[in-house]
């Protein structure tokens, strides 16, 4: 096991470093304290070949210039808040609007674009990074000073374990996630990846990708991933929700949510035998099939990212929860502690 720290570059918000975490298996994760971005995840395939299973860039400058949230830590509120407006304890709040009329992924300068303080973690079971950030009262329109800690641990079992914690000095809303894009083959599109999501229901959306408030059954629709199904098997079907999302870009309501760590999803890539399992304490997961990638970005290893060359499984509370009284609450009050855990586990079969 080993941690190596190198300079990644300068931003106008400060110096950023890149940390290479190598576990006892020799598998490797690179993370930068700029945006808490997971820059790469190198794991073996069924023949023992190491390969990078994430999308991203080689240089800090490219992340700063144009990052569609590759690998990023997302907050203060991951996903969308309709029109950037919500009421809390009878008071209206207006957030930065950065996605059509809506607020997305924390606003114009979200947690994915700030420099976090970093401390190395060395444990018997793995190596990691403890990131901290103070999001000031009023940042992007949010109330309250929010003190955030994110612990990344890369274990000897090839688990990328993410523990999120936060406290506030005024009532606010919080929804933290990681926006890594995966491609378990390390190339091409993700349409042949077989996906299972433990969800009987999802939250259908309107044209702005804002949930309507309904929890709709997946049975009999292309949204149904209760049994492992190739991502591409039904993605071009004539379906209202697939049309609105330009593919999959939907929040799934995880079965049996009770705040304990449970399996949310599993992805299998047949040519390499790589498997990704996602565990979370959160009630939802956004499955995004990389619909907005369009060949204009050239990433690591000179790869051009075409439509659906990567997928995301963003564990989260449901989008627009601050405006949806029927959804699990995302309110954090002074004296309370926000805590959640997500594990991305890599194996082969
Ligand atoms: C999330 C959203 C998508 C898109 C991506 C980033 O997954 O749900 O609509 O904004 O982030 O491009």
Walkthrough of the structure:
This protein has 349 residues and is mainly beta. The protein has helices at residues 60-65, 240-245; strands spanning 2-11, 14-22, 28-32, 38-44, 50-52, 73-74, 80-81, 85-88, 91-94, 103-104, 117-123, 126-135, 146-155, 159-168, 172-173, 177-178, 194-197, 201-203, 216-217, 229-230, 249-253, 262-269, 274-280, 284-288, 297-298, 304-305, 312-316, 331-332, 338-348. The chain has two helices and 29 strands. The strands form eight sheets. A nine-stranded antiparallel beta sheet has the order 11-12-13-14-29-23-22-17-20, with no helix packed on it. A five-stranded antiparallel beta sheet has the order 1-2-3-4-5. A five-stranded antiparallel beta sheet has the order 19-18-21-24-27, with no helix packed on it. A hairpin with a 5-residue loop joins strand 2 (14-22) and strand 3 (28-32). It is globular, with a radius of gyration of 19 Å. The structure holds alpha-D-galactopyranose.
Labels describing this entry:
349 residues; mainly beta; nine-stranded antiparallel beta sheet; five-stranded antiparallel beta sheet; 3% helix; 42% strand; binds alpha-D-galactopyranose
- The proportion of residues forming helix, as a percent range, comes to under 10%
Strand content: 35-45%
> What small molecules does the structure contain?
alpha-D-galactopyranose
Main sheet record: 9 strands, antiparallel
What's the gyration radius in Å? Answer: 19 Å
Strand numbers in spatial order across the main sheet: 11-12-13-14-29-23-22-17-20
The residue-averaged pLDDT reads: 98
Uncertain runs are: none
Distance between the termini: 24 Å
Number of strands: 29
Give the helix tally. Answer: 2
**General form:** globular
Structural class by sheet pairing and helices: mainly beta
